[in-house]
Write a structure and sequence with these properties.
about 550 residues
Amino acid sequence: MSMHRVLTTLACTLAILTAVLATARPALPSPASALASAPVSTQRTDRATPAVGPTVRTHDGVLRGTAHDGYDTFAGIPYAAPPVGRLRWAAPRPARPWSGTRDATRTASACPQPAGEVPGGSTDEDCLYLNVTTPVGTAPRHPRPVIVWLHGGGFTTGAGSSYDAHRMATRGDVVVVTVNYRLGALGFLARPGLVGSGTFGLADQQAALRWVKAGIGTFGGDPHNVTLAGESAGGYSVCAQLASPAAAGLFERAIIQSGPCTGRPDRPFAPYAAALPSARETGARFAAGVGCSSARDTMACLRTVKVSRLLAAQEGDQQPAYATPLLPRDPAGALAAGRFHHVPVLIGSNHDEGNGWAAGIIQAGNPVTPETWPDVVAAFFPDPARTKAIVHEYPVTGPDGGPVFGAVIGDADFACPTLRTGDLLGAHVPVWRYEFADEHAPPLTPGPPPFPLGAPHASELPYLYDLGGRPRSMTSAQWRLATTMIDYWTRFARTGAPDSPSDPRWPRRTVQSLTPDHTGPTRTTATRHHCAFWNALP
């Protein structure tokens, strides 16, 4: 296989791997293996009512959850009807109310996805559930801010239940909601005449937000103070919801982690939105791949195909489609025109976003040396003039060019687009920027990487969540940073600003550097990441 084909295939594959990986798996070429998780249920669970536990009465019925030390959890709450049968590739419908008391002690199925990111994968379409974590006491003196978390995974993998939010909930006195939404072709198929084409997963997110607005009060949350937050594809989902007219009034603040709103198809590692014609071309290939392209009624044929076959036929990466009713404009264009929901935004990326991907590509047998470097660059930037410019800007002078390759990926796909997104947002709304820069962040994969990874994609997540219910092994300084970050995130959710009069250390119009040894503003982010070069590159 040619170098170009190897690298291009890996680019498409690795760009989706930002969901939770199982610790039992061998090291994979993905930064997301930082999110090693306990197994996520992929089967429908018995909903018999447990004998003890906190109960709440929602608009759909009574739930019994699980009491923990200082917090309660309510898992597997349906926010929409199962998208099965005729509801496959249809807008989410309201969940059916239940009688009696529903068991909310165990998580529900992850949405259909290939094996790997969720151990064993999932073929269960009955997956539109969310999970609530709240400090003890569902009747606080004042309603608590609400954070709705959208997981990453390249719009192809992941599950809300992989994120244990109890540290954020208890430390910040907030209610945290984690959400499943449809993924892959089941979430983003586009076909001519198909209502909702290319945006079913985004519509699910909006249905979850409507559920929160209607029902989070019974968990002690404030329906008038909802922060929509996400990482990678989840962060880009926040961008899409900012640009979606249908999301008006569904959230009051936004947090975007490593999912800049200016993603582009020629920068293959960061998420982006596809134009509807392109998305329909992808849909046509998908229909042909499962034998439905020549059927009299293509959609009727597709709705009869087994999930396992659909997963096998879908392309490696998926994107939401714009030029659609739910997402009329590319989020980047919407931000540039000021046509988005004007709410405060907290946005940032990690110092070494690209290193995990670079390490994986090298481990797959593609060394980066002075001799191979021009071919490696050409695999991702085929235009000869661009290749020459990048090789000159980022020279590889020794036998281990992995860090240089990682810098190109991180700077081009994340750091500079994140700064650009912040500029576009900042012309209209308050924006707070950060860069997570712990150079000794807990390792992303078992086994030694080919070079030190620093703070790669997804490495900030263990500082905010226990992934798969297990805390990461961190130093005391790293735990202090985790506490600081949770304070910043939850203070932003409460007030719209991450700092406070007693802790005024995050000036606007600067980037807050987050490290174990120092947390404070920096004005050199654009220079360190060669953003003048990338912004000028045709």
